[in-house]
Specification:
The chain is of the alpha/beta class and 155 residues long. 41% of the residues lie in helices and 22% in strands. It has four helices and six strands. The chain has a six-stranded mixed beta sheet with strand order 3-2-1-4-5-6, with helices on both faces. The longest helix has 23 residues.
């Protein structure tokens, strides 16, 4: 298991959930919700968070259909991850996020939270679920999770 803080990202059309791991890569926790923007302000804020936390890697959730096929959101998440990789200066990896938002909503409902009012929290919880899944997968396999995002810089 690699040591160091990782940042988890749940990309949505309106909001982006952000989470972080502890230094030992054992536990993911929510950080904040960033408003999605067309002008790159969202990516700059995430880059600031990565720097503030001293993260060595960013894990971005890749939305896939239950069958594993690409969905309308898959291309958006890949494009965001590629743009983010060019901005953050640390490796970015895409990890399957099937059912993370559903799981986050269910967990909040079970805790008595109104999911409509708690949408920004749902995004953070989804990012936390994505990152925790990636941490657990790495611990189980000994390999970094998901697939690396290649940037167009220098290629």
């Amino acid at each position: 298991m690699r040591s160091g803080v990782r940042v988890g990202i749940d990309v949505g059309k309106v909001r982006i959930g952000v989470s972080r791991s502890d230094l030992h890569g054992m536990l993911a926790t929510p950080v904040e919700t960033v408003a999605r923007s067309e002008d790159g302000v969202d990516r700059r804020r995430i880059s600031e968070i990565v720097g503030e936390l001293g993260a060595f890697e960013v894990i971005v959730g890749l939305p896939l259909a239950l069958s594993g096929a690409h969905t309308a959101s898959t291309g958006d998440a890949i494009g965001f991850a590629e743009a983010l990789a060019a901005e953050v200066g640390v490796p970015v990896r895409l990890v399957d996020e099937r059912l993370s938002t559903v799981s986050a909503s269910q967990a909040l409902r079970a805790s008595g939270r109104n999911t409509k009012k708690a949408r920004p929290v749902v995004d953070q919880v989804a990012a936390t679920i994505i990152l925790q899944h990636a941490l657990d997968a790495e611990r189980a396999t000994g390999r970094p999770p998901g697939d690396p995002v290649e940037t167009s810089i220098g290629h």
